[in-house]
Amino acid sequence: MAKKAARPSASRKASTSRGESRSRAKRSGPDTTTAPVRLTLSTLTPAPGSTQARKRVGRGPGSGLGKTSGKGNKGHKARTGGGTNPGFEGGQMPLYRRLPKRGFTNPFRIETQVVNLTDLKKVSAGDISPETLYSAGLIGKPDSKVKLLGTGEADRSYTVRGLALSASARAKIEAAGGKIEA
Length: 182
Description:
Blueprint: H1 10-27, H2 95-98, E1 113-116, E2 127-128, H3 130-135, E3 146-149, E4 159-161, E5 164-165, H4 167-175, E6 179-181
Parallel strand pairs: 1-3, 2-4, 3-5, 4-6
């Protein structure tokens, strides 16, 4: 009969545990082996995982994207330029062609910014102009046209310059003792 192979002895286990304790001792303490890398344009690298390799299609079956290049077999979407416009409904008459056309867009429309009388409480000055309304944050562009509408009440007398006014806003400002200048 052949002798059985001896089992690993306790001394072997002890040696591995000694090795582990040595490696732990090495790890503790400051790392003085590597000098800090100076940050320059030549040492910049992207963060790990932030970049991916380019998808190289049609480069053989081993790549997983060979032969049909991940496009399946035949069909419109497998062809060059194959794809549909956003409104395409599979050949059915699309919604944008089923609905009737209505109205038109006026090419001469003048866009005005609207301010109500209730908003004038935010203006500290009694003089109302596009510049004062802009500085109070009531309009976005001081150069474009502004119209003052009559929603709310005029809480004090205002002097209005350079604004278009609705009939009700004009009446309420004049009733409060304000002036409207052209």
